[in-house]
Amino acid sequence: MDNTQTHGKYISWPILTLMAFVTVIGFDDIMYNFKNQGMTVITSWVLMLFLYVIPYSLMVGQLGSVFNKEGGGLSSWIRGTNGEFLGYFTAWTYWAASVPYVVDSANSVVVGFGWAFTGSDKFQDTMSNAQFTLWTFIIFIIFIIIQRRLANSMEFLSVVGGGMMFVMTILFVVLAFVGLAKNGGHMATQPMNVHTIIPNFDLKYWTTVGMLIYAVNGSELIAPYVTQMRKPQREFPKAMIALAIMTAFLTIFGSFALGIYFNAYHLPNDLKMNGSYYAFQALGEQFGLGDVFMYVYAWTSVVYMCALLAVLLDAMTRMLISDTGDKYMPEFLRKTTKDGLPINGYILTCTLCAFIMFLGVFLPEMNDVFNWLLNLNGIISPGVTCWIFYAFMRIRKNSSKYPSQYVFIKNDKLAYLVGLLLLLVTALATLLGVAPQDVEQFSHTWWYELVINIVSIVVLIGLGALLPSIRRRELKYGTAFDRSQWYLMIALVVFSVVFDVWLGGTKIALRLVYIIIEVVIALALLVLIAHKKPSQN
Description:
By secondary structure, the chain is mostly helical. It has helices spanning 3-7, 13-24, 27-37, 41-66, 74-82, 84-118, 129-182, 203-206, 209-216, 232-261, 271-286, 292-328, 343-360, 366-397, 412-432, 444-477, 483-504, 511-531.
């Protein structure tokens, strides 16, 4: 059958470029990494674009082409190369990576409303960590309740908000350079020379690479559209090269533009949370418009983040429940209302988000909570990206079994090696990213963040490994656990988490050792309780 008949119409490579661009980079991504690396991030962006973004995107293209009948999703790629269980576990880790992202998005909504209504960061001085967490949770619950009624309109608003965000980013970069010419080339970053943009490739630098990867991943979302191109073998590389050029423009010139208004050698501590608003505030002042740009950006951010939050909450839960079937997912999580809503899946999402927010309550300041959640994304998100390179290696190891309309690097051995190198780099960035950022190294807060980083990862990923066992108990006994078992296990988990978080916040010298001992004891008790046959009453 003719391709036109199969797909209705072809997708041109410029359209695919724009679709990919929206998923890959944004203004906040530039701001976050500018805070981590200063002006040296310009060199990092150049290296990332040519050594990571382009090959990563082209690998995604081939995977999408191979598994086009399965819809091109990440879990279907792993399921097609490694079987059902690993496909399920990939779906779980992809979902788990969305949990900190959702919480971070809710945080951004609170911050955005604060700037939109007050026009400054003063509201943060009167808001405690507990209040920040409470407002975040309230917004989260509101969107859980109303998302069913507003899902379609929120998808529309996300397109509008995303488009406005893109326009605001381009506007900032262009006007920043106009302003630079207007004031005779003066920059806040001084001195500004070649040495200013050359990184020190030390351990601190490598711990920030995960955030760079978090900023540029996401192109796997456009994989299903590869086979809808007229000539994928020629047009898809064009789309990815165009994507690299657009990303290069935004990241390199955007980072340089930030250096015009911020001294890269002495950046504000709250730049990740408030930097975007500071930037547009400075832009408006330079052009004699006061806070106009800042207010426009604040409301743009609120609209975009609200829409993103509503869509994410529904999409991530439905994806997990529907993509894993009944073999590994417990029946109580697959329970739906008469409207088809996975109600217990929402409760699980809500519970884990509340758990993540609780871990950050005991950090010193609201800014620390925001930075920690953001950096947690820089750990988990690159970890999930490892699955992409692993799937690519599998299809190139046996390329005759996985035919594709588009092939990245015709030589299988060379392609396999490139996939392996990117897998190793991403895995290393994930491991090093566990080290806390934005706080003094080995300080009290540093150790506390290290503990809650590890706790978050263990809970989010570990729970996915436990669900198939719970499903097997359902099939064996008719129910996984009786009521008393559920109560005991929930109480034990809550006590263990609260105790570990409290202990991590103390100054006891051997607190990490005590936490490990407590976790081992708690796990042993959980196994004993869960192993017991449930009462049929």
